[in-house]
Amino acid sequence: MDFLGGPYIEQLRGNARLTSALTAITAAIVGVVLNLAVWFGLHVFFPGNGTVDWFAILLCAAAFVAMLRYKIDIIPVIFGSAIVGLSYHFLRGFR
Questions:
Q1: pTM of the full structure
Q2: Given 28, 45, 62, which residue is the final one in a domain?
């Protein structure tokens, strides 16, 4: 069964003004997501007390290697990171 709106979407792809507007919107959204990623990364790796959270940096590096080298999907990496992080903080005593 074909997608009923397929021909209409193909007509929209031919519209240069609409395509350039959607490209600009996409670029803006990518910029906002990148800005949030940098902001959260800085606040996680360098908390306000002037120290470096080496555990967070090592966990981030391990998650990156797991996804890039071993091709593990994002959901298992998130759950695994959450379990490791919670275990670390329970063993540390929530300081």
A1: 0.72
A2: 45
Q: How far apart are CA 91 and CA 86, in angstroms?
A: 9
- Residues 25, 58 share a domain: no
57 and 88 in a common domain: yes
pLDDT tens-digit map of 16-31: 888 899 899 999 999 9
Question: Do 58 and 31 share a structural domain?
Answer: no
Listed as own residue / partner, the contacts of 82-88 with beta carbons closer than 8 Å and 24 or more positions apart are: 84/59, 85/55, 85/59, 88/55
* 31 Rama sector, left if φ>0, alpha if ψ -120 to 50, beta otherwise: alpha
CB burial string 22-35: b at 16+ within 10 A, e below: eeeeeeeeeeeeee
Is 26 within 8 Å of 20 (Cβ atoms)?
A: no
